[in-house]
Amino acid sequence: QIPKEYDESLSIELSNAKSLRIFYTIETENSEMLAVDEEYINPIILDKNGTYIITTYTMDENDVKHDEANVKYTIKLKSNSDNSISEAKSEENTPEISKGWKQVGEDWYYYEDTGATVKGRKWIDENSYFFDDEGKLIRNQFVKEKIEEFEKDDIYLELINIGGDMYTLDDYADSDGVLWDVAGLLSYGDVIDRGDYFEATEVKITGWNYDKEYNKTDMYAPKDIGSIKIRKDAKLVTFVDEDYKGDIYANYYLADTYYNVAGGKLSEVTLPETLDLNNTWGTVVDKGGYIIGAKPVYDADDSGTGMLTYEQ
């Protein structure tokens, strides 16, 4: 809309060619209409008399601002004698509450009947999805669950703990955002030495299909997810048990040791797989997404070469 004086409500739509996120601030004497650094999702409605200065800007993936602009609008709605006309036009210009799926740039959101964006896990039709704290659908990535401090007393997590934030890998969201249970990760591709970490290529996830009541139905065919990164100092825990004195202990390898004992892979030496991890205990990653703890299905070899023991 062109900046000028209007005698009817305005519905202002914002867009940009680069599909960056758009934010806006509204300055006005009407406190009900004030807005500060709001992210643009739905059209901005100006439906009360007053002067409005709207400042907009875009923000890239590094949270750097671009393209700041200021526009002034004045709203002077028609007098009471024209109420019927004014109300009709106002109703015509007011958009319906967003419901269901909506795309903003390359991102997808889902709106409840109230117009609020869904956050967290949500069954929609026949599939389960996960939306981040901003309501954005996650795709091509794991749902990561932050490990709380009190949980780190568990021997598995206590052994893995390197300080700082840690996360377990939960379900995997595919390119459509559909969630898949992850019971294990496997690969027959190369495991590449990248210096401080290994990159396992051609990784697949395996797991179960669930119904809406989260009952297991059957296993799905393995799904490709690309590559994953495992730190060389990651703990690969093969066994946790209690000894005759009641002390809990864990057998584990450093990933670097496991790789060398198994002959340049992260699966038992005699198996064709190059990566074979069981997600029963939760595969653990650091803030950067590198695996720092996991449970291999088998020891590196039958003799326990290079295996270490940790007692709680």
Summarize the structure.
With 312 residues, the protein is mainly beta.
Structure description:
The termini are far apart. Residues 82-91 have low confidence and may be disordered. A hairpin with a 4-residue loop joins strand 23 (284-286) and strand 24. Strands 1-7-6-3-4 form a 5-stranded mixed beta sheet, with no helix packed on it. A 5-stranded mixed β-barrel has the order 15-17-20-24-22. Strands 2-5 form a two-stranded antiparallel sheet. The protein is 8% helix and 46% strand. It is built from 3 helices and 25 strands. The chain is mainly beta. It is elongated and about 90 Å long. The chain folds into 3 domains: 5-95, Immunoglobulin-like (Sandwich); 96-138, left handed beta-beta-3-solenoid (Ribbon); 139-311, no CATH class.
Q: What percentage of amino acids are in beta strands?
A: over 45%
Element order, helices and strands?
A: EEEEEEEHEEEEEHEEEEEEEEEHEEEE
Fraction of residues in H or I helices: under 10%
Query: What's the gyration radius in Å?
Result: 27 Å
Secondary structure topology:
Layout: E1 5-6, E2 10-12, E3 21-27, E4 35-39, E5 44-46, E6 50-59, E7 65-75, H1 83-93, E8 100-104, E9 107-111, E10 120-124, E11 127-131, E12 141-146, H2 155-160, E13 166-173, E14 179-180, E15 184-187, E16 191-193, E17 197-206, E18 208-210, E19 216-219, E20 223-242, E21 248-254, H3 255-261, E22 275-278, E23 284-286, E24 291-296, E25 308-311
Parallel strand pairs: 1-7, 20-24
Antiparallel strand pairs: 2-5, 3-4, 3-6, 6-7, 8-9, 10-11, 12-13, 13-14, 13-23, 15-17, 15-22, 16-17, 17-20, 18-19, 20-21, 21-25, 22-24, 23-24
